[in-house]
Amino acid sequence: MNFSITLLEKLAQEMAPSTSEIIQRESKMPILKIDAKDLRKVMLILRDNPVFEMKYINNISGVHLTAIKEDGTLDLKGVEVLYVLSSKLDFSTIAIRVDLPEVNPEIDTIDDLFVSANWFEREIYDLLGVNFINSQDLRRIMLPDDWQGHPLRRDYKENASYNGMPTTRPNELDAIRVE
Amino acid sequence: MTTENIYMLVYGVIYLLLLAVTAGILTVVERRIAGRMQSRIGPNRVGPQGAIQFVADVIKALQKEDIIPTDAYGFLFKIAPYLVFMGVFLTLVPIPFGAYVLMEDLDLGIYYVLAMSSYVVIGLMIGGWASNNKWSLLGGMRSAAQKISYEIPAALAVFIVVAMAGSMNFQKIVLAQGASPVDWFVFRNPFTFIAFNIFFIAALAEGNRVPFDIPEAESELVSGYNTEYSGMRFLFFFLAEWGNLVVIGALVTCLFFGGGTFWYEWVVSIPAPGREPLQFEVLGFFWFLFKTFFFVFVIIWIRWTLPRLRIDQLMDVCWKYMVPIGLFSSLGIVIWMYVIPENSGIDRVVRIVMTSLGALSVVYFHYRVYRNMKVTKAVFYANPFV
Amino acid sequence: MITEKDVQSRVEITPLNGNEILVNMGPHHPSTHGVIRFILYLDGEICVRAVPDVGYLHRSIEKIAEGMPYSFFMPYTDRVDYVAAVNCNLGYALAVEQAAGLEVPERATWLRMLGSELNRINSHLIGVGALAMDVGATTPFVHAIREREYIMDLLEIQTGTRMNNNYVRFSGVCQDVPQDFFSKTEKFLNHFDLFLGEFDRLISTNKIFVERLKNVGIVTGDQALSYSFSGPNLRASGIGHDLRRLDPYCFYPDMDFDIPQGVGIKGTVGDSYDRYIVRIEEMVESVKIIRQILSKIKEGPIQSKVPKKLVLPEGETYHRTEAPRGELGFHIVSDGKSTSPYRIKIRTGSFASMTSLAEVFKGMMVADVVAYFASLDVVAPEVDR
Q1: What's the mean per-residue pLDDT of chain A?
Q2: Do the domain assignments include residue C168?
Q3: pLDDT score for B65
């Protein structure tokens, strides 16, 4: 019922010409990986098709994918957005993943299909810098509106000051530290 | 300045001081009662059982910085509390605390009281508007609408009493009643009972008390028209509100519960009608105070139990329920007085039936309390002074 | 910080018509819900448009998690919902145990469930009391706080602290309970049943209270699903999803309890009164569950062995538990090599409840705005993390 592979295979059949891939088959949460351009099609199928009837968003989260190269520096590989939805009937759950490129990550919004998606997407925009095209209201949500940068990214460096307030404090222990 | 005028000035000052001190003590009493209802103790540090807590509050408030918001309209902002306080204090003039203990025996008694309580409306609106704060403005507007709406049911209830008593003079209204519950206006006939309920509820609404305290609703408006006031100005609003409680209690006692009359004729033969020996006048005074403070206690009790009404529900209660019932009752009382003569058999029977119903409801109330305490296995703390 | 210019620039909005005023229900609320700000456009008494502004309590705990081992993150989950800390601890521990395949001894599971249900009663008392206080009655709130004192004494014996318990560890709990704990809990439960009856007689059937809450903020079942409501809010709208039944964890399948649903007792299904009654009934169910736990708990170890350097296998997992405010989900991403998580995302029920505000507030009066928001039982740290 929860996170079953049969649901994923049914979904892969329904979205027929578009390609998809099932990853993490043997773990507790198998995920269906799709392309960014198929997102709205898949979401419409999930929401309206009576087999699925997934009207409930459990979670939309973003992850900044990186790898460590041989010389120790960070290799930025883009942003992953994971959608977890549940069905109205028996709460069976499905997880869908979209990988976005590193430069200008953007994806279609689903906040006209699901009302709550707007806030989840705003959080991903705020903290990871993903642009949701045609969103009704894409503003920063956790951070002030004039903040610069997206903190959850791995390459985020904080500004030295924000509106005149310095972002670091001198460490009082430095004065008495014995080297 | 004749000696008349000096006497009146002295009376006025004495009444003012007494009202201020009473209102102050009432704030402490309310906090203690609220504490006991909420399983905690109220203020009990300052003075015996916390009785002079209000003095500490006043001293603290006097020491505070007098903050006036920058864009507030200075003069109006400053006089608003005084207008409200004046509106409350002036209503005390014709009310007899017992026989012949009053400032001025006005023939227009109750009419004057209703008129003076309208000063409060002006004060609240000015306070709300002059604070230059949208929330205060909202509170002031709501408060003004509520107060002027509820003056109408109050006036209808008063009309019923005036029709029964035949005069607007407070002394005559009191003398038209008697000392025992059978003679009180509240138990005379069903219409005056309805009038008592209407008047009590309307007076609660006039005084901005729960369940009608939307203008000062904490969780919505951060105290409404009070928000920008600090220090002594704020305490003036407070003083006015608690002084109003005493006024409501006194009015209800006078109009409906035979305030101040005592069972003189059972004890001693009266030399002249209306002129009792001094010791009975003093007893009457304390009896009046007892009844007044009983109603103040009931108002405090209601405040800490009930939630508050929304503004449109408040207006519905006034215009859709209380005004029609009041009009119907005033028609009813006139017909009743025409049809059924005073002191006839039917009149006596109705009075005794209503009094016994009242007594039965008091007994039933105590029974319900007893049953509740048994069911919840509550421990009864008989000592209010923990 | 969002200003009026920002709101008008990014959000398509009608400019202020003649009668409208812009009011700020600022971060400092007398209501006890934390620092959340609303910008309301009011036309007289009616709210024409509402813009919620959150983020005043953002502590970036998700970024902090990327720099510390898994077990160091446990105290941070307390602070996600400080009213129901054991539930949040439990959610995190279960998510990590599911991904790493760790075993939990039986007594530890019972103790976890006991702490969890006690905290559920705790949290619902605050929710219900704060709702009563926002509607105007102060006394029920203080009575609820008084009952919480008993529960917090019990929690202090069980977990060591009254608040921010930090109780659950991977594969177990942090400390065992003394011998007389169960008799004390039994005594408290007997007292609490009577208290709930008194509370009901005080306020649940009070006409003014019912009139304030009935037909206010009606959210139908389909709307609730699209707003991602979960927990009591969703059940009050008529959909009986409870994660303890649908996605069971611990020993909840063995427990016998009902799932209260909103049936529109005094108004329509899904109004604020239903959300209130569902919480009261859930407290009764929690008492039932605790009684069953007390009868079934056995002796045994309370902690199994966990590797010192815990590394989760590579991949991502999402685990949900039923917290008092809704679904608490942990999305944990691991890169298979390091002892600290790669990314933790916490999905809370209050965040989802906030998504409904912009739509539901339209056309409501200010007093109803306060009543509806209080009936959602939102706490600010869950929204902002």
Answers
A1: 85
A2: yes
A3: 82
B35 touches chain C (CB under 8 A): no
Out of B121-125, B223-227, B236-240, C91-95, least confident range: B223-227
Which residue among B219, B311, B376 places its CB closest to the CB of C134? B219
Chain B residues in contact with C367 by the CB 8 A cut-off are 214, 217, 220, 310-311
Nearest to C181 by CA among C196, C159, C162: C159
Chains that touch B (3 or more CB pairs under 8 A): C
Interface contact B38, partner C, CB < 8 A: yes
C13 pLDDT tier (thresholds 50, 70, 90) = very low
Q: Are residues B162 and B246 in the same domain?
A: yes
Q: Is the pLDDT of residue C4 over 60?
A: no
d(CA B383, nearest CA chain C) in Å? 20
The answer to whether residue B47 sits within a structural domain is: no
Which DSSP helix (H) or strand (E) runs through B194?
A: helix B190-206
Enclosing domain of residue C111: 72-349
B163 domain residue, yes or no = yes
Q: Do B189 and B305 fall within a single domain?
A: yes
pLDDT of B181 strictly over 70: yes
Using the structure block, give the residue that is written with the tokens 């219409």: B191
- The model's confidence at residue C16, banded by pLDDT at 50, 70 and 90, is low
Residues B162 and B127 reside in one and the same domain: yes
ipTM for the predicted complex comes to 0.88
Give the domain range for residue B198: 66-264+272-339
Under an 8 A CB cutoff, do C142 and B134 touch?
no
> Rounded to whole angstroms, how far apart are CA atoms B225 and B381?
39
**C330: β partners:** C319, C346
Q: What is the pLDDT of residue C268?
A: 86
Structure tokens at B199: 């008047």
Phi, psi of C217 (to 5 degrees): 65, 55
Q: Which B-chain residues 312-331 have CB contacts (< 8 A) with chain C?
A: 312-313
Q: Pairing relation of β-strands A56-68 and A74-86?
A: antiparallel
DSSP state of C201: I
Give residues 321 to 360 of C whose Cβ lies within 8 Å of A.
327, 329, 331, 333, 342-343, 345, 347, 351-352, 354-356, 359
In a domain, C315, yes or no: yes
Whether the predicted pLDDT of B268 surpasses 50: no
pLDDT classification of C112: cutoffs 50, 70, 90 = very high
CB contact under 8 Å between A63 and C333, yes or no, is yes
Contacts (Cβ under 8 Å, ≥6 apart) of C385 = C58, C59, C60, C61, C62, C80, C346, C348
- Residue tagged 């002594």 (tokens): B232
Both tokens of residue C266?
A: 């005094």
Structural contact between residues B135 and B227, judged by C-beta atoms closer than 8 angstroms? yes
Are residue B106 and residue B192 in the same domain, yes or no? yes
Is the domain covering A5-106 a CATH 3.30.460.80 domain? yes
